[in-house]
Write a structure and sequence with these properties.
single chain, four-stranded antiparallel beta sheet, 8 strands
Length: about 150
């Protein structure tokens, strides 16, 4: 009986510990007041299995960009199979505000371009983000005025 009680207590403790592990980055911006635009752009997968979804959010005059690989489940409902945060933007010290964010499809994935205003480097005026069809792979370039 004592072993059973200890096992039950351990199980309850484990459930409580799991509740603390919350993935905050994207969900922190999944509200109407933070999200400024959502775009579907381009396809991914060997048979063009799904689409890319680009989410732009703003908080305290700073931009946050997330790219999702979307696919339809067996019921035909669109679901995110992978979410990518752009590291160069998605931290509270980046201090880059984006405007006129556009997306275009390429043979290798998608390319995002935007006007940029940086609080750290006033010479930055555009950014280009190339997203590969393989989840997690991208290239970030900040273009500076001369």
């Amino acid at each position: 009986m004592r072993n059973l009680s200890i096992a039950m207590l351990m199980a309850l403790t484990a459930v409580g510990a799991q509740a603390l592990g919350i993935d905050v980055p994207y969900t922190a911006f999944a509200t109407a007041d933070a999200v400024t635009s959502v775009q579907l752009c381009g396809t991914w997968g060997p048979k063009r299995d799904g689409e890319f979804r680009v989410i732009h959010a703003e908080r305290q005059a700073q931009s946050f960009v997330y790219v999702q690989w979307m696919a339809r489940d067996t019921d035909g409902i669109r679901q995110a199979t992978h979410t990518l945060a752009i590291d160069e933007l998605d931290n509270d010290h980046a201090d880059i505000a984006l405007g006129d964010l556009t997306c275009r499809a390429t043979p290798h994935g998608i390319v995002l371009t935007a006007k940029a205003d940086s609080g750290h480097d006033p010479r930055i005026h555009r950014v280009t983000i190339e997203i590969n069809r393989t989840p997690g792979r991208y290239t970030f370039r900040a273009h500076r005025m001369r």
